[in-house]
Amino acid sequence: MKVTFIRPCIGRPVPGKFEKGALQPLTLAVLGALTPPDVEIEMYDDRVEAVPLDRPTDLAAITTESFTVARAYQLAAEYRRRGVPVVLGGMHASLLPAEAARHADAVVVGDAEPVWAQVIADARRGKLKKRYKGVPAPPQSGVFPRRDLFAGKRYLPVSLVQFSRGCPHACTFCAPAVYFDRRQVFRAIDVVVREIAEQKLKTILFVDDNLTANRSAAAELFREITPLKVRWASQGGLDMAEDPVFMDLMMKSGCAGHLLGIESLEPETLGAMGKVKNIGVDYARRFEVFRDFGMQLWAAFTIGHDTDTVDSIARLCDWAIDRRFAFAAFNILMPYPATPFYKQLARQKRHLFDGHWWDHPDYRYNHAAYVPARMTADELTSACFDAWERFYAWPSIARRAIDFKTHLSHPFKFGIYALYNYVFHREMFLMQDMKLGE
Ligand code: B12
Ligand code: SF4
């Protein structure tokens, strides 16, 4: 039996041109590792290569996110037209299994670990069930991701590793908050340490939803990875700055920086989105602590909340430039299916694109998909675009660079700062206005 794993792209800004320097698709390496050894495996990453649809296979297994699901459905249709059964899984299919079922022979809701062997057994017998449900549990137990599947695909020299999955918080716009239902599950630390130690790559991206949410578990991980002398980055919460002992341990373990979900500076907005941990926080002090530890930050904001206006978005961008963040993301708030935010917009009849932006032919990447409260959807789209453009304009890049505690404190840090600011300056708008799928 042969299974073909596929990661779809969001779309192609330039038709026929593939991405260079993508990050490894860890999801597919984990699915590969869970597959019984007598099954032949092939993996195709639609972002970086053409998917050979005519190559014989017995099962196509496609991962989905809301931004890639339009393409996933196209690929699924192509395989099914060729008589190949299709199984869909991942975040989007798990949040909307009934929709996914219309495009597939089987849908896996939730984690693959508990059900994948059964899916394979049923596929062998030609008796796939319509739906399998895998409840989140400690991930990847007993297996190491099949990174050999990445050979020859020229991914960035960064190894993606997972320690935990899920987050205990419940921000109203967040898809993982629905998927994991406020649970956070952990892998055994000795296994994670062994996985890192066995790899050649010494730059690690922990793909955890919120690595620092459980400080004692994270601290134990940091202690154990310190001797491995790796450099790593991840996503964490602002509250870690309250704990200097934790910060010290983290930096000594090789932390280069974090993506921090700041989302908004307005207490009213933070309250409405359920990000209560950030309310009343003395941002200036916290960011001083991060700077004192030499941490380079990737500040992530969600834009388009009911308190946001065109002017407040511009002020947020000024504030981010003044803080000299290494990177920032001004993401338009997206109504991800099944989230409380999505349901609220439905109640208020504020959805655009019939509430199905992810596979609507008129939706374009980086555009608002709902009617904001204090501006038009087009104003939100342009205000967001302006914030990105201003943050990654040369004057801002030059101004933010001048920070002797962070970007100028070490040649490696300056290298990361300069390289990725240049890349974002040059490439960030390639996907703007792009149609999803192909
Ligand atoms: C790492 C990561 C990234 C990396 C991507 C790394 C890469 N490989 O290229 C970076 C930082 C580049 C990134 C970018 C983006 N990301 Co991202 N990312 C993640 C993150 C944190 C972890 C994903 C991961 O690797 N998990 C580890 C693997 C092992 O687990 P897994 O993917 O969950 O898969 C398991 C199950 O879901 C299931 N499964 C998954 N697929 C399949 C398929 C089959 C057939 C089966 C049977 C089972 C199955 O089995 C697996 C094992 O249990 C997730 C959060 C999350 N919890 O999913 C967000 C997440 C997927 N990202 C998200 C978003 C929005 C984005 C961006 C669009 C952000 C932006 N605005 O630019 C971009 C573009 C993404 C793209 N498609 O190109 C959203 C998606 C929301 C949604 N409704 O789909 C998530 C959920 C984050 C969030 N807070 O909402 N991301
Ligand atoms: S803290 Fe981050 S991962 Fe956790 S629920 Fe909020 S947005 Fe989602």
Q: Mind explaining what this structure looks like?
A:
The protein has 438 residues and is α/β, with parallel strands linked by helices. The chain has three domains: 2-134, Cobalamin-binding domain (Rossmann fold); 157-280, Transcription Regulator spoIIAA (2-Layer Sandwich), CATH 3.30.750.210; 295-438, no CATH class. Helices cover 35% and strands 17% of the residues. It has helices at 26-34, 69-81, 91-95, 97-101, 116-124, 175-180, 189-197, 215-225, 244-252, 267-273, 283-292, 310-322, 340-347, 377-391, 394-401, 411-427, and strands spanning 2-7, 40-45, 59-64, 86-90, 106-110, 131-134, 159-161, 164-166, 184-186, 203-206, 231-236, 255-263, 296-303, 327-332. The strands form three sheets. Strands 2-1-3-4-5-6 form a six-stranded parallel beta sheet, with helices on both faces. Strand 11, helix 9 and strand 12 form a beta-alpha-beta unit. Helix 7 (189-197) runs parallel beside helix 8 and helix 8 runs parallel beside helix 9. The longest helix has 17 residues, at 411-427. It is globular, with a radius of gyration of 22 Å. The two termini are 29 Å apart. The model has no long low-confidence stretch (mean pLDDT 96). The protein binds cobalamin (B12) and iron/sulfur cluster. The site of cobalamin (B12) has 37 residues, from helix 1, strand 3, strand 4, helix 3 and helix 6.
